[in-house]
Amino acid sequence: MPLAFPPDASRPPGYAYDWALVDVETSGLVARRDRVLSIAVLTFGPDGVQSGEYSTLLDPGCDPGPVHVHGLTAERLRGAPTFEQVADRIGALLRGRVMVAHNAQFDYDFLAHEFARARLHLPVDRRLCTLALNRRVEPPVAGLGLAALAEHYGVPQTRAHDALDDARVLAGVFRASLAEAVRLGVPLPLVACPPRQDPRFAPKPPKTPCAYRNPGRPASGGPLVQGMKVAFTGESTVPRAELVARAVDAGLNVMSSVSRHTGVLVTNDVVSGSAKARRAIAEGVTVVDERAFLGLLERVRPGTLHEGPAAPPTAPAEAPAPVAAAAPAPPRRPGAPYAAKPFGRRRVLVLGGTHEEASAVRARAVELGGTAAINLSAGVTDVVLLPGGERDRRMTRVATLGIPVHPREWLGAPAAEPAGVPARGTAEHRDGTAAEVLPRGGVIDLPAAGQWHVAASWAQQTGCEIDVVAFVLDGDEQVACDEDFVFYGAPESPGGSVRLLCDGPTEQTVAVDLAALPPAARRIAIAAAIDGTDTFGDVGAVQVALAPGADAPVVAQATLDAATSERTLLLAEVYRRGPRWRFRAVGQGYDHGLEALVRGYGVEVE
């Protein structure tokens, strides 16, 4: 089936590329560890006509993993080529084309690792995720899985989790999604892909987590206690690796940097001028030499295991005072019924006005029970026009689509929604509930384990870049190691419990595996920072959505409006309160840049 556009929008600029549609079946979910078992690649030209098709099983040289999912047993794969044997052919199909996949970062990461193992360059410069594209389009479906989208768009699916059939289904979904993007004028979420040909780009091995709480600093002349944070700097007689291993075996928490929570810095040259030594002196951290430390290791006292209630989360000590947050809303269970409100089925897009005026309108729409949109999509039911909004380029599409346009006064006394009449493009969950719309400071309870995705998105920008970051924090509101700071240059924490996923130029997601977090983890703080002098007043609202998976229905969402001057915005947090995990929409802004926030959480900044 060709990737045809509507008759009046044939090959519009910005939508016509050479495409390579890809689907892989894998032995697991971790690209640096698991292998590709089968792959299918379909190629299309800018005119939407298919130009090639290739698929093959692959011998991974390992256990094929969840056979009940993909049906690929070791017997079926025996005798198939290895990835290295077909890498050149796959590379030829990908070269010069935009790679398209559903949850594209997953497929891209697996291909990047397979090409790296073959010591070849993955020839993909840009990719497009149909999951991210449909988040922008917002079709009226509860979930955005490939099967749900195929059903919605009328694409037949015969063998789920078969690479070739899934690639053909992907082609149908992509065709329909492209047509919707053209109709709505939605820009494609193309992602630039830097070269990843070095086989050493895999994340570092995880740090051994400490099982004990931090008891604080040792008393003057007193012993060490299990859980105390220890750092090393400078040359040593005993190899550093051995010192670290002995400290870990004793139950101490070895850190890669020094903060106010560090118990001891071990160095044979306190006047060396190293960054750690300077910070230790400034913070009053106990400094001992190697010989004294080895003596202390012989009488480390028992500590307290990580268990029981955690302290309430606080802002980093070194950061300026945050913007006052709204009082936390009482937590509720995902899927609980919601009270009926006048705007219960409306999704409102605000055009024009100053940032403060638009923020007030979005807040009013949420107060009335609706949701605030940040981009034009199929889910938008109403547009509120503020001064200057008539010049917005999207107004032409709004008129074409027949979306009602209202003045600001419309929010003063809105009419109630007609009973039983769904609004345009909205989607309820199958149990009749919808995503919870959280106010700033709103809290929702989470199951004790499982994978959760926190997605942040904003309106298309031309003048600035926004980076989403995450910090895995302990009870002292500090990272356990620098690698617990997750950002674009290090997109995975040790052990892979927290990962940064890039879905497009205006969408980034933090994936959190609660079951895989180290025992010391008490909070995952998720923030956004602007690179440059622009502020979130220039950017506008940031939307945060919580879902139990990449393509699962959204459980909760919030639209966050910072004040005009902030360059860093604390978006959300996933935190532990006793045995339960919770999610909070935060929306606290800081005038400083990302570096101050990073230092406040104990990350050593080069």
From TrEMBL:
Record's keyword terms, sorted: Exonuclease, Hydrolase, Nuclease
Biological process, per Gene Ontology: DNA replication
Biased composition (Low complexity): 316-327
Pfam family, one: RNase_T
Region (Disordered): 199-222, 304-340
Origin superkingdom: Bacteria
Exonuclease domain boundaries: 18-183
Record-stated family: Belongs to the CAPAB/TerDEXZ family.
Protein name: Exonuclease domain-containing protein
Taxonomy of the source species: Bacteria, Bacillati, Actinomycetota, Actinomycetes, Kitasatosporales
